[in-house]
Amino acid sequence: MKTYLLTLPFLFLAVFGVAQANDDCANATVLTFDVDNLISASFNDNDYSYSGVNPTCEGGSPEDAWYSFVMPFNGNIYVQASSSSSTEYAIYDACGGNEEGCISRGAHVFSLLSGQTYYLQVFRTTGTSGNVTFTIEAVPEIMNDDCANAEALPAFDMDNITSATFNTSGATPSGVSPSCEAGSPRDGWYSFVMPFDGNIYYQARSSSSSEIAIYDACGGTEVGCISRGAHVFSLTGGQTYYVQAFRTTGTDGQMTFNIEAVPEITNDDCASAEALPAFDMDNVTSATFNTSGATPSGVSPSCETGSPRDGWYSFVMPFDGNIYYQANSSSSSEIAIYDACGGTEVGCISRGAHVFSLTGGQTYYVQAFRTTGTDGNMTFNIEAVPEITNDDCASAEALPAFDGANVTSATFNTSGATPSGINPSCESGNQRDGWYSFVMPFDGNIYYQTSSSSNAEISVYDACGGAEVGCISRGAHVFNLVGGQTYFLQAFRSTGTDGVMTFIIEAVPAITNDDCASAEALPAFDGASVTSATFNTSGATPSGVSPSCESGNQRDGWYSFVMPFDGNIYYQTSSSSNAEISVYDACGGAEVGCVSRGAHIFNLVGGQTYFVQAFRSTGTDGVMTFNIEAVPAITNDDCASAESIVFDMNNEASLTFNTSGATPSGVSPSCESGNPRDGWYSFISPISGSYAITSSGNTEYAVYDACGGNELACGKDITVSNIVDGQEYFIQAYRTFGTDGEMTFTLTPTITPISDGTVGLCETIPSITIDGASGNNMEWVQFVDSAGELVAAINANGSDLGQVDMELYIDAMDTRTFNAAPYLRRTVNISPEFQPIDISVDVRIYILEDEFNDLAAADDNISSIDDLSLIKQSGAACADGLDGLGEFFTVSSAAYRMVDYTIEASINSFSTFTGGSFTSLPVELTAFDGVATDAGNALSWSTASEENTEAFIVERSTTGLGQWQEIGRVAAVGFSAVAQSYEFVDVAPSLSAYYRLQIVDFDGYTEYSDIIFIEQETLAELRVWPNPARDVLSVAGSVSEVEVLDVRGRVLITSNDAQNIDVSSLPRGLYFLRIDGQTLKFVKE
After folding, report:
1. Contact present, 768 and 796 (Cβ < 8 Å)
2. Residues whose CB falls within 8 Å of the CB of residue 925, separated by 6 or more in sequence, listed in order
3. How far is CA 313 from CA 310, 323, 380, 459, 1038, in A?
4. What is the DSSP string of 555-572?
5. Which run of H or of E encompasses 853?
6. Residue 206: what pLDDT?
7. How big is the CA angle at 206 (ends 200 and 212), to the nearest 5 degrees?
8. CA–CA separation, 254 and 148 (whole Å)
9. CB 142: neighbour CB atoms within 10 A?
């Protein structure tokens, strides 16, 4: 009874809150059995109170729940399951009526009546509480509940088996107590008629807790009480027997049992022994019987405790020899052999064992049985094996003469042998052995080539009772046998195995090149630079040199070769996957490499002699053929030595090289683990667009924008996109790890075409921002029209141009003209957000083939693209033509996709650009020099001839890259066929300055001279390094303060430590150092 520690008002609330309807018998909840005769319910006894009814199986006053049910038939109630072992159940025939039973889980209430209402009181034992879920089963009474009502078992089937199933929960104890179970169990009764004299074998059952007892009559004698796998013996054919079937105490439920009637065997003792069938052509005989039909004969064999159920057989030994228990149907079957009934046991064995030294013509008796606790059918085969004649060394049989391949062999049955008493070193114990002799045909080794069984071994002796020369298993050797000497061979199988044994041994002559000092010269390398050799490792002994790629000391052959050139050795092929070689620079010298098939040894020197140690890996031997190839070192073995690719008319290229001639460059491509043997190629792209690199086999490629630069693509059959014409690229070609040889690959382009533009219309080209923040101010940036076709490209060389706008104009005429001089119909207008400051910018204009051809046809001065100049018309709009005030720039020209063209020049400002031949003014400048003097910087120049030349404008710049300033003008002679000289002095120069001449003719055309540089001596003391710089910059000289400026003149860094100027945070590009009024340039990479 629980104690509630609540105040009265709260107690009322608690009681009213948990009160349940079925808290007493009068309010019992009705339960109904389902189709499986089960009812279930759940409750929490914390919600219930004591009903006042005290069940007999529980002391005290439990909190209980009440249920009622109608019994569906005469039978029992079985508490099948419960969520708690502390839950109990009482059943009453009425409220306040008789208690029919009080039980816990797994127990029964018996003899309930069909149709009657019963009341179920469910509670937990004292001191426990909580949730309870339970299931009870109504089980109908069985009809065969005692011997008098025994149910006849089905007739025995063709296998003499019968069976039955019943539920022990439907049974009540019959009052008969079987001898193998304490108490009186709930039991079912069955009867059967024994079909013949024999035994009952309890063959199978549905539960390990099921047992049976057999009686000769109701109330009669118990014949036997057994569990599964046991027997009841000596039943009489035609008699009725009664089976009491039950489960052991405390277990209940369905029970299925099978019993087998087994006829008595007729050979149940030695006196009744059955003669085995005659031995067949293989000297084998066999028999089958069922041990369940046998009774113990009383003879106890030495290899089995007790007296087993046994069958007896006899046989006549066909000759002097042994019995081999060859096979049986069960691992638990054994036999004992006796020389007579009641005689001496000759042997007691299990499968795979022998009984030795039986006498031909004598009758022997076999006791066949299964080990204790096992029964059933037993089939056994025994083989009579004649004694071998070569059973010891003194009786050794001469092996057949070695054949043309120096091989001999023999076959014998170890079951016909007895142990000779000689214990070989490679096998413990004293084996059944056969003995053979042979004469060694020459000095050499014995190779145990093959055998019919993996557990067959041989030992070789130099005489009977002499020294053991070697003890080996299949695939091993005995070394250093002497030609002409007789040796003795002990053949045996390892412990626990027997049968026919065939062995083959090969006599192998000792090789002459068994160590480095005796190395055999390899044949000269052939036209393919390949040489090879063949030898038998079985004819070799270990030289004592341990190669690095193989543990232990191998049987090896030695060879020498002279390397025909600087290069590598490729171990091309071998006759066996386990054949290896090691190469040394001298006998006792350094190991150059140790490799298996398909691997390389690198960096051998042409003309040097090398030594090859050839061997097979541990545990393998035989003939070994190896091929090695000398491969010359490739010249393009790293990026710095990259081979230039030459493209054909289709802008394609195909290349071949042998990776065996390469060494790893140390560059690891992203798509290949490790460091492959690679060849390197470079190309300056003749096109913009992409290149597909393809090949067959296991080849791969990585493409870079520079040596040590960015990887652009990696893989097999790759496409490299965003290729820019005129840009140099590098290809790393290799074969995937572990493969080598010749490789061929092809570069095939997908070309970005040059824009056709729109005739008569200024077409706006998509803008691009070029600056350090965008990371593109030190590379070529291509401008394409809305169709993705090329217009121009700019390399800012570190300058920040900001947003660059561009327009393309194509005139309707084939060419445009100025003063009757033709120029291209294509003009490109470029407008950057910021013009370059103190730096030259490279610009590239793309020209179609027909545009150039039209210009060349109209201008006799143009015969090739090299005759073109880039013309800049300052202040001109997109469609404006030339007005004579343009600047002319010398260009570098190139073919584009082998048919179109590009022209490229360095400029210091942007405007509208086109192309023509105006740059060649009629003046020939032969010299332009300058020198620093006390009066200033003295400039001088000379001409070879002049025509229509108006003047020379002298311009100065502090950087040479822009911001040119006119500082003077010198009148020209104008017209002259002889040399003329001119001078000019810059009386106010800076400490360092750049100079150029602008040459102007009377028609307004101009061109520029080369640039010269003049430096005052005081500035020469200042030096900056490294240049380009990555992280830290240093200035040598007497420096007080350093300022770092960008190309727009903004001060970015001020430092008083000229030796350690931190520039790591700067974007890459061109910068200036301002030092005490002087200016130096550097590039941040």
Report:
1. no
2. 941, 942, 943, 997, 999, 1009
3. 10, 14, 11, 40, 121
4. BEEEEEEE-SSSEEEEEE
5. helix 849-858
6. 65
7. 40
8. 22
9. 22
| Burial call 819-836: b when 16+ CB within 10 Å, e when fewer | eebbbbbbbbbbbbeebb
The answer to whether 801 and 794 have CB atoms below 8 angstroms apart is: yes
Find where tokens 């047992």 sit: 211
CATH value of 762-916 in 2.40.50, 2.60.220, 3.40.50, 1.20.58: 2.60.220
510-564 pLDDT, tens digit per residue, is 999 999 999 999 999 998 899 999 988 888 888 999 999 888 778 899 999 999 9
Pairwise CA distance, residues 872 & 910, whole Å: 8
- In angstroms, the CA 310 to CA 365 distance is 12
Domain boundaries, the chain: 8-140, 147-263, 270-386, 393-509, 516-632, 639-751, 762-916, 923-1017, 1022-1084
* Those residues with Cβ within 8 angstroms of residue 610's Cβ, 6 or more apart along the chain or in another chain: 560, 561, 562, 563, 569, 583, 584, 585, 592, 604
SS3 211: strand
- Taking Cα atoms as reference points, which of 367, 319, 321, 303 lies closest to residue 340? 367
- Three-state DSSP at 589 gives coil
Give yes or no for a contact between 462 and 469, defined as CB atoms under 8 angstroms apart: yes
How many other C-beta atoms are found inside a 10 Å radius of the C-beta of residue 995?
Answer: 26
Q: Distance between CA atoms of 1048 and 799, rounded to whole angstroms?
A: 9
**Inter-residue contact 1012 to 929 (CB < 8 Å):** yes
Write down the residue that tokens 């390892």 correspond to: 494
Q: How far apart are the C-alpha atoms of 267 and 276, rounded to whole Å?
A: 11
Using only the alpha carbons of the chain, give its radius of gyration: 55
Q: According to CATH, what is the number of the domain 393-509?
A: 2.60.120
Q: Which of 350, 281, 288, 292 is nearest to 313 (CA)?
A: 288
List beta partners, residue 842: 795, 906
CATH of domain 923-1017: 2.60.40.10
What architecture (CATH level 2) is domain 8-140?
Sandwich (2.60)
- Helix (H), strand (E) at residue 856: helix 849-858
Strand stretches in 113-209, DSSP E: 117-124, 131-140, 151-152, 161-167, 187-193, 198-205
Q: Please, how many CA atoms are within 13 Å of residue 197, restricted to the half-sphere of its CB?
A: 6
**CA 623 remoteness from chain centre:** 34
3-state secondary structure of 855: helix
Instruction: Calculate the alpha carbon distances from 754 to 687, 789, 814, 826, 856 in Å.
Output: 10, 5, 17, 12, 19
Sequence-separated (6 or more) residues with CB below 8 Å from residue 677: 600, 659, 660, 662, 663, 664, 734, 735, 740
If one looks up domain 147-263 in CATH, what number appears?
2.60.120.380
DSSP-assigned letter for residue 86: T
CA–CA separation, 250 and 212 (whole Å): 16
pLDDT in tens, 132-164: 888 999 999 999 999 999 999 999 999 899 999
**Any idea what DSSP says for residue 851?**
H
Please tell me whether residue 1018 adopts helix, strand or coil conformation: helix
612 Cβ contact list (under 8 Å, min separation 6): 519, 522, 558, 559, 560, 561, 581, 582, 583, 628
Is the full-model pTM beyond 0.70?
no
Paired with 438 in beta bridges are: 487
Quick: pLDDT tens for 649-678. 888 999 998 888 888 899 999 998 878 889
Here the tokens at position 293 are 């039909």
Q: Where does 617-688 show beta strands of DSSP type E? A: 623-632, 643-644, 653-658, 678-684
No. of H helices and E strands in the chain?
2, 80
Distance of CA 136 to the CA centre of its chain: 58
Q: 29-33, 586-590, 694-698, 717-721: which range is least confident on average? A: 694-698
